[in-house]
Amino acid sequence: MSIKHYIKMPNESSISELHRAIDPESIPRGCELLAFGSSIHGSAPNDLDLLIVFDLNARANARKFADWLIELASLGLVHVTSLSVDENRAASFSDRVSAVHIAGDLLA
Asked: Most buried among 23, 54, 92, 104, using CB within 10 Å?
C-alpha cells in the first residue's frame, strides 16, 4: 500500500540543494529517492514532489526514511510518496512523471 506524506520545506530549496542536504549514506539500503513534478519540469515550482521506491524487504526502513524527511523539512510544501518496486513498476509511476534520481539504490 502507498504512503503519502505532506511536509514542509524551505521555499528557496531546489533539487541541487536537496542533493546537498541529503547524504547518500542516509538513504536506507533497498530504497531510492527520486524527485518529480513542477520542481523538476516547471519554471515556477509550487512544491517539491519526492518519491521513495523501496524493495519490500526494506519497507520498515523506507517508512523511517520518510519520517526523517518529514522532520528535515520546515517551510514550503513538499509531498513524499512511497511505492514498493512492484507498485512503481505496475503503475509505471516514475516513468510517467519523468522522475529524476536523487540518491540511493535498490537491492539487486
From this structure: 54
